[in-house]
Amino acid sequence: MARDLLAVGAGRAEAAAYVADAARAWMAAGCLAPREVLEVQPAPHAVRRVRLDELTLDLRFSGEASPATFDPVFGQLYEAGERGAGDSAAGRLDLVGQDGLVFLLKDGEPLAAAPPPDASALLKAELTEAYVESVETGFLAHGALLVRGEATLIVSGAPGAGKTTLTLALASSGWTYGGDDIVRIDPDARVRGAPFAAAVKSGAWALAARFAPDLLGLPIALRADGQQVRYWRPARLADRAPRAPTAVVLLARQAGAAASLEAIAPLEALHALVESAYAAHWRLDGDALAALAGRLETATCARLVYEDLDAAVALIESLG
């Protein structure tokens, strides 16, 4: 490439800079990896096994990549204890550090590369996709899940509705965090959250830090969509036993609105959950739909209209 550029009149420095920029872009996109990165994979200096429902996957760290960068974000997903001989995972992701970048490889094939803080975003995206594709029964819905005593709350809302910030606020007021993005709904309509760390976007940092004081000290990661996020992992997580939902709250954040919790028909809550549904290996049949409708008939279904976060939290307190 450099020779071609020189042939059409580019200067040496200009050609070298262009090639370097192109190489960085190709590495970031997973189209290119240095030979040293590919050669170092067979000898990881650390391994973490992720186990989440049907997903079993090894994270293998090589070169300059340190588990210390990733453990604070993903440690809640790790399997505890020693592994026996022959105990192999269904797949692997290699994180190889080289020249200030972390290269992410799936089963030996390059996926992407980024500086260490941004590599957490790459890994979060890949683990989320792996989990979504691994689920064999039931479906996944977009929403947060929180637990308090016998109460199991699902919070659903469009992007920008404040779901993550509200989830952090509730987690600081006595609710236990189950997840802020994915709710698994089993064929019998019992639910559990996917306990990934909450991705708090830059626009919400100041407000969310009121409820998670450690947030502003966490590393900043740049996601593929251009959003800067901090990954917040709560000190306490809900257990992953499937539970009957006792409340479904749909968010409607409106400027200047006084906070109110308005009852909605169970059918509207059902529509919101099914609208965001995804299942790689399962189809929602009549029996499963009837089971979910039956659960929602006995649950509190409401729309939360709000602007003030404290007022919203106070209203949801009545559901737990």
Automatic annotation (TrEMBL):
Matching entries from InterPro entries are given as: P-loop_NTPase
Name of the protein: Serine kinase
